[in-house]
Please model this.
Amino acid sequence: MAERTDDELLAGVRAFWEGTDPVPDGLVARVQAAAALAASDRFDVGLDLELMLLVERTEELAGTRGSGAAAYTLRFARDGVDLLLRISADGTAARIDGWVVPPSPVAVTVQRDTDTTWHDVATIEVDATGRFELAALTAGMLRLRLEPNDGSTPFQTPAFEI
Amino acid sequence: MLSAQDLHARGVAAINGGRVRAARALLERALERAADEATTGAVEASLAYVVAETGDREAAERLCRSALARDGLTAETRGSLLSQHALLVMLSGRMAEAVRELDAAIAVLGDFPVLLGRAHGNRGTAHLELGDAAAASADFAQTVVLLREAGLPHEAAMAEHNLGYARFLAGDLAGALGAMAAARDVLAATSVVTAAVCDADRAEVLMAAGLTEEGRDALDRAARAYGAARLARRRGEAELTLARSLLLSDARGAAVVARRAARRFERAELASWQRRADAVRVQGELAAAPTATSAVLEEGVRVAEALSADGLRWDAAAVRLAVARSRAEGGDRDGARRLLVRADTAAPAPLSVRLQAREVGAVLARRPADAFGHVRAGLDDLHAWQSSFGSLDLQTNVVGHGVRLAVRGLALAVRSPADTVLFEWSERARMLATRVQPVRAPQDPQTAADLAELRSGPAPEREAVLRRRVREQAWQRRGSGEVADPVELPALQASLGGAALVAYVVTATSVVALVVTADGTTRCELGSRAALDAVLSGLLPDLDMAAAALPAALAGSVRGALAARLDRAAALLVAPLADAVGDRPVVLTPSGVLAGVPWTLLPGLVGRPVTVAQSATSWLARSAEPLRLGAAGLVAGPRVPRAEAEVHAAAAAWSDAEVLAGDAATADAVSALAARVDVLHVAAHGRHTAENPLFSGLELVDGPWFGYDVDQLPGVPDVVLLSACEVGRSSVRWGEELIGLTAAWLHAGARRVVASPAAVNDDAAHDALVRVHAALATGTDPALALAGTVGAVGADAPAPFVCFG
Model:
């Protein structure tokens, strides 16, 4: 194989996908609408929520000797709180492993997008390690709400797809 | 005016030209003008064929019977009529009757090679349906010879395909796949339907080999092709095959598919086929719901009787045994015993039927010793068959047939108070895939070329073709036919020296460990299976994230969470054994569910030499002679920042180690190096491929170096260090047996493999393995060398390397 730079390779990958699987018309507008909706929820429900921001999405584990496993990592952050999510395949279902940093006990609620509104799927109590696991999830748009046990302001992630 | 003979000749010509309607008109006129019995019979024979082709089987049968009653028929006519009638009988499922008629046909057709070849072929098919694979093979072999000599390569290929199928039924999977592949080369080009026949039958072999996904895909394709060609019976047969093979893995799904096939047969008025589908549905329903209603049990018995009457004894036996098992589990021992006696389970019965009978026998046994006897005999039977193939892929896959027996054996053993019994069954479960003695494969030039092409990054379609061919080539390899007996407890104790062996046994409900030392044995109950599952469920993500380079605050928390989980795992798996193990080095034989545990990181085992063995038996065999630790070879793959530093630093520990790095680290160069060193070290990106574990590999400068490449090596080092992510990971196919790159190395003959079950941090791998080499170069055992370098999980990325052997 001829030696190519990363930029050239990525440009090739982009050209390939734009040719075979172009971004659907209106997707960008729909995502913006969904984000606006997500942001507006805090006012609709009247809850004081901190919306976390997606800091990073990586397929590879930096600094390791893997060549891209069938899993990816999302990192969200807000006001000194980090949320790491590792999303992997669990047979035909999906699985989320989460770390709340700094570790603290929180209640994590999984919400699923159901066309019209967000439904609570499950709530789990996370202990002081800040570590939680959500198994046997079906594909779709999800978001997580984190309610610290100490009563401080809850956090919510933007929607992400699994 | 044309004579009857002329009209007959024109009719036959029309048949051969595919003009069935015209042929019928000509033959009916010939029949009116036929003056003697012999001519009438000959015309009726041809007409019967035409009528059968148009779908009116009853009319065709009547024609054959009236013709056979005539005097003065020639041998050729008589043989044709008998063959023709036998075919019609076969279409309605009465196979035993067909065999008798074909016996008579074959007796008179000696001078007519083409007719004789076809009669052999049809009789072979009937034998197959009756489950007599040996008789079928003999018939098909005759057909192949006769028709090939008669210049009919296409028909000969059909017979060769059937020969493959007969071999499959006789348990010769490798021979079956070989014959089917040769036949497919000739047949697939002829028509979509013929290709579908090839694929559907091959799918059945794949299913038996435990390759459920591949088999299911092939059957789906075949069923769709039959559906498009409006071939209801063929389509039903494909569905029936799918249903039957789903019985092991998805009983409820099997029942659903069998019901669909039964309806299709019913609409096509194929009563015998419908009964076979009903039998599979009943088995599926019984397996899915052990507390079956009496209606299902009674239906099973009824269907079995009807199948026996059709001469389909193995189909009948399978459903009888399923009913018997259900009755026995429900407490009706006498009812179960009666059915077991009625079922045909003696030697020529297919393995699946024999194993089913062993299972029923084990349930019915009054004394545990008798139950163990049945399970043991069943597994021996399985291993004898398993030993006929050489490919690790197939050996692991066919384990599915024995899993139910092994699970029963383990459950019985955990209840037994005797440690010798618990140990024996721990070994047997561990050895489901490893009792067969490996054979060194001769290098296959086609496979070597295919692997090289795979490395070059072919287009996805081409890649799929190449991968399939590499896999299938391996399947056809013959096995050693030799099966190792599990070591007995006293013999193990005599060979342990100062080490302790820990056998972990995990059943559906509980976890037990047996600690074996030269001084004695200790059994430790480790708690519930649910508690173990809870600890293990997030272990791999913990390890993967702990290996990643993260901002300090994140890394600290993630590694802290890993340490907490390892503490809980150790509290469950290690702490209860502390007194029994003392400060001995340990050899572990973990159950399949423990495959991903980084043993060297568990508190209580940190700093202690740990060897993870496939079984005590295999560990003893691998430890029989001192390890060769003379010559070392080290390889650095591309795109790993610390790899070159690692191999050069590690090489410095040896007096004359060979190093391959940069452009020199090609697959060919690494294969050649592997063949001439005692210790091989590869620092590279690694990848475990769960769906096809022998395509797991290490990234070299010219592409991935696969598990299949290991299989092709002319010589194998004693010690292999895989300084890469994940390649110590294994896929568990059916419960206890493991397959992956580490298993591939051990299967190929390596005696110790140091690898990680999860992601590995670049710096951590560098630091740990450079120090391991310093110890190895002075003759230290790899497990001891690892014990001196791998520490407990702290603030830095862990080095979850484990010594397998």
Q: What stands out?
A: Confidence is low (pLDDT under 50) at residues 42-46 of chain A. The helical segments of chain A are 6-20, 27-44. The CA atoms of residues 107 and 125 of chain A lie 5 Å apart. The interface with chain B takes residues 1, 61-71, 73, 75, 82, 84, 86, 88, 97, 99, 101-103, 129-131, 133, 135 of chain A (CB under 8 Å).
